[in-house]
Amino acid sequence: MMRKSLSGKLFASFLTVIVLSLSMVGFISYFQASEALDKSSEKSIAQVIRSASYQTDLYLQNYEKASDSILSYNQVKQFLDMDPEDNYSYYQYTNDIQKYLFRSLFILYPQINLMYVIGEHGKAISDDNSNQAYSPQFHPLERYRFLSKHTPDSGRIAILNTNVMNEGDHNIITMVRRVRGVSSYRPNGIVAIEFKAEDLARIWEPLDLGQGGFFFIMDEFGKLLYRPEGNENLPGLSPDLIQNVFQHPNDSVVEKVDGKEYMFVSRKSDYSKWQLVVSMPVGELRKPISTIRTTTLVVGVLTLAGTLWLASRFGRSITKPILILKEGMRETEKGNWRRLETDGRQDELGGLMRSYNLMVTRLSEMIERVYEAELTTQKAALELQETRLERQQAEFQALQLQINPHFLYNTLETIKCYAVVQDSDEITEMVEAMAFMLRYSIQTNLEEITIANELRHVLSYMTILKHRIGREFEIDVVIPPALLLAKTVRLTLQPLIENIFQHAFFNGIEDRHYIRIDARIEGDRLLVLVEDNGSGMSRERLGELREKLNLNQLADTEGDSRYHRGGIGIMNVHRRIQMVFGEQYGLSVESKENEGTRMILSMPVERGKECFKNKTIIGRNMQ
């Protein structure tokens, strides 16, 4: 499986974040703007309809006033109460009503096409706006019965899409009212006024409905009263579509007509009960959205290109020093002591590179001193004791600097991951802990240090390990306070703790796992115990390890692979104690498979510290 570089991961992370951000912003902005524009368009259209509806109601109220004039005319009431067999009276009423009433109304309301009055006795008086009596094929009694079915007795007007000829002309609208005579107590006649629906179109002419917009009118029963004619670009209105729009008064409906989406916005008049509908193509309404979408895409692409360029530069600024540090460590493994150029960096990575340079300097000094010690032993036998001590000191120092490169590499990889997904606080914590471990491990003096110093070194290791494993782990420290200042050997506890995580908990850390560090005095020895309840070792494995410890030799990294990594740490701790305190001291191991392991560090008690025998135990936790 190919490993991606940190720069590539950073670039991919930035790309993901930027693309998601731009996509979400563009997506939300587009749909919110679309919804807002739809509502704004619907609101604007509704406002137009309300204005046109108001004008239409005013227009119809003029005809209602004309009908009031007819209803209040005394000759009309007398005509309704006349004897249908009295032809002379019928002639007089007809002449009077046509001459003095209808002609006056035609002058006042030139838009009226026809007016007529029909009594239930079967007689009718009618007149049109052409100064000629309207009589061809006019059957008054049949017309009276038809209009009576659709006209309320209360005297309220009814507006019907019909005409006196019943020819189905949709451009003729009839306003009808019930009327009663002088002596009757119930309605016994019908007054009707016919006018052309085309006159309504003049009210709608000032409306700008765009290229594909149009309007139409439905009566209170959902029947189409009027729609513009003569425009070939207007879509067809099916009965199902008309009914669907009719069932949503004072609302908007989006329907597909002739393969094209239209928005129908309707408002119902409280006066006429008509439903006025305006239709606009959805594409025309959302044309501003297309402009917004195009602008968003162009700006998004330019923003994406700029941010990706910045992300690439930012990623290289982080990964470049890490790659330089990694390459320098590889050269160090080969024995090439090369210092790194820090380029004046003052951040955490610059501090890590300076610590690395210090380590390389110390390592080169150590090697030179080893060579000098070898030359000194060849010069004089009289200085044998001193030479042996120097060689032992140099051996200890070289051993002390055998820092596990895998740990450093894994730590750096962890730092890289944090550089991608977290802020710099965790990186600072890890780098500081790593710098402390490096400074602590490259000390060259042979003086013994205290158990408290070793515990602090373990704490730095646990700080780094916490970020590597992604969880907290507490180490139980139950060392008596009086023993915390007891002398021990540098770099003894941390390798043992690392060995536990690598081998005792190799299947992963569980909640039941624990590590306990204790210390006590037995006779003239100081014992430091490190226990765990991990996987333990088999008898064969434990026997091989004890045999290796009995050889009193440093671990050979090129030798038996069974002791690679973990075995190196245990045997080097054992040998380091022997070099400082003598071969009668060192490390012993007790273990049972699937139960755990106990590692015991045995060292002499410092003279004058008999007070250490006080056994008061104070428990502490180390994370």
From TrEMBL:
Pfam families: dCache_1 (PF02743), HAMP (PF00672), HATPase_c (PF02518), His_kinase (PF06580). It comes from the Bacteria. It is a multi-pass membrane protein. GO terms for cellular component: plasma membrane. One of its GO terms (molecular function) is phosphorelay sensor kinase activity. Residues 420-607 form the Histidine kinase domain. Residues 316-368 form the HAMP domain. It is found in: Cell membrane. Keywords: ATP-binding, Cell membrane, Coiled coil, Kinase, Membrane, Nucleotide-binding, Phosphoprotein, Transferase, Transmembrane, Transmembrane helix, Two-component regulatory system. Its EC number is 2.7.13.3. Residues 372-404 form a coiled coil. It catalyses: ATP + protein L-histidine = ADP + protein N-phospho-L-histidine. InterPro entries: Bact_2-comp_sensor_kinase (IPR050640), dCache_1 (IPR033479), HAMP_dom (IPR003660), HATPase_C_sf (IPR036890), HATPase_dom (IPR003594), His_kinase_dom (IPR005467), Sig_transdc_His_kin_internal (IPR010559). SUPFAM superfamilies: ATPase domain of HSP90 chaperone/DNA topoisomerase II/histidine kinase, HAMP domain-like. This is histidine kinase. It comes from Paenibacillus apii. The lineage of its organism: Bacteria, Bacillati, Bacillota, Bacilli, Bacillales.
